[in-house]
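@here heads up, posting the sequence + SMILES for the zinc ion run so it's all in one place. Ping me if the SMILES looks off, I pulled it from an old spreadsheet.
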Amino acid sequence: MKNITCFCVLILFLGIYSCSVHEYKGDRPKYVFFLIGDGMGSSQVTGTQFYLTERAGRIGLDSLSFTGFPVTNVVSTYSAFNAITCSAAAGTALATGMRTSNGTIGKDAIHSKDVYSIAVKAKERGMGVGIATSVSIDHATPASFYAHQPSRSMYYEIAMDAIKADFDLYAGSGFLQTRSLTDSAAPEVYCCFEEAGYTVVRGYDDFNRKREGASKMVFVQEAGANPFSLSYAIDRQPGDLTLSEITRGAIDYLFQKSNRGFFLMVEGGKIDWACHSNDGATMVKEVMDFSDAVEVVLEFYRQHPKETLIIVTADHETGGVGLGTRGYELNLKLLSLQQHSLDILSNRLINLRENREGKVTWEEVKEVFSEELGFWSKIEIMKEEEEALKQEFERSYLQASPAVWGMYAVVEPLAQQAVRLLNDKAQMGWTTLEHTGTRVPMYAIGAGAWRFAGSPLNNTDIPRIIVEATGWN
Ligand SMILES: [Zn+2]
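bot reply: prediction finished. Complex structure tokens:
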């Protein structure tokens, strides 16, 4: 009797063990989410966590939606010929598993032959495919999943490639070039999508009204909105389309449409833009916004845990963010005093100068900095700090020196210097206005996530492992 009991316990144990091993390795995921924070290095993530914790009056790292995922790793980002990648080469590596030269979309570095993404593989297997971003649909990261062009700036040709790829859903702020620059007779982009059977919707309400009858969709902002990108989270106005809304809409649409499963890429594209401006407060709010979009995906995951794989990573780091500039303190909570992005602050100063026909006083500018950054009213500004700002006011602002083009916006040098001062007081440092070559973090959860654990990864490994996990070869 005792032997029989032992035997039964053994069988039960083996059953549980084999079941747990089976569950650990997971079945092939039916729903694959690939979320890319453009420019989101480790310091962008950790800095946002420190910021949230400091605001709660503690020291430590409060969680973002993805930082507690069971599998984490680090990923190299260099491109075929450069230690520091651009988003086109990085996007191509993450989408296709092929390193290419900076500026190239969906082509190999040596022979310039087209290389195809995991999204194409998913489509070939009859799955739904969605591409979603907070910037324009033809921008480098989303384009890498469907386009093949020698230059990331060939926006019209990239949009035409989206039609050829024939994915189910493209969502983002809009398209940058709706007309060909080289052929005036070439048709307009949105007309081409409609002719190819796409339903074009503008805004979240329009999307929800039309999604049921639509066989393929282009989902952009309402007419008149800036096609370059969605608003920064820090600048958002009621009614502005958000990355979370786009993500929720994409999931609802693809789930309803594709009973064989789907692949959805979601890019938080403006973390990179904020970092190109070395604008810490705006960057932190973008990382939080990206985390909110991941939370929307997690809601789906909790309903389909055994069939869903989620990967969160970045294409590269931007700005060389440093946490700590002197001593052993951070004061990141000061970033919460900033009311708008550097872009909006620049515009406010430019408008002030125009309205006052150049006769702006230093006291008026101080008023702007007090409202927008909390200077003097909420943070002490030392005499020499004010003196440095005033010198810039006299050197560039009063002279109406042309505002410089940052990577993605007009930047007034005086506004830039003021934002730099706030970052410096928060002890957040920056080393560059461009990208850096540092490894980026990666987080995975769900069916097949274990495959991403272990040795550090190359960016080209990620699509290869997705194919292993899904069996899309
Ligand atoms: Zn960039």
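MO: Residues 39, 87, 272, 276, 318, 435 surround zinc ion (CB under 6 Å).
MO: One more: The first strand starts at residue 31 and ends at 37.
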